[in-house]
Here is the input.
Amino acid sequence: MGTDNLALWNKLKRTDPKATKPFTRSGFKGTQIDPTWRYQMLTEAFGPCGTGWGYDIVDTQVHDGLVFVGARLWYVDDTGQRRESGVQYGGDVLFKHRKEGPPAPNDEAFKMAVTDAVGKASLLLGLAADIYMGQFDDSKYREESEAFYAAKAAEPTEGEKGAAAALKLGFDCCETVEQLEGFWREHKANIADLPKPLKQEVINYAGDRKRFLVTPAHPAE
Here is the structure.
């Protein structure tokens, strides 16, 4: 069997429109990506920062009022192997010009340079590649991305699935209708907090269990 070399790229390439905003700089128009969203996607793909992924600062340079930072992104793949991206550089100005008075020190210069470098390194894995490939300029594509992330947000989390499974097990342990109704009252708030599909699933499960307890199945004589 062959290896799908684009599997990770395709998993990371689609950008959530809510995590973007347009910007104009020196006459250039582009799309800015929320760095926190980038970190969320890396965490979703590989696990917590520092365990499943992270980055190393490998170089820092200052030239003519600019700071440049080189960063390498690393992650742990499905086999447990640590992988690394190539080194990418990000930069920012050390002083910001003002309409009046001398330039003001940019306290965020190093931070922004690191963010820029990590963003470029994550692009090598495919993260938010649709923006750099021009797909995001297509309004129909953006609408598809909005629908994709809306559906994704509606999906139950593993924690919510686990909570629903625990509630079902609780109903299974009830041996009388009175016990079942008591368990329902005790956990009514937990059921209400579940996403709608899981909530309805648990309600239906409880109803089936109650009907069984009212009219239990008997083995054929």
Observations:
- DSSP finds nine helices and eight strands in the chain.
- The first helix runs from residue 7 to 12.
- The chain has a mean pLDDT of 91.
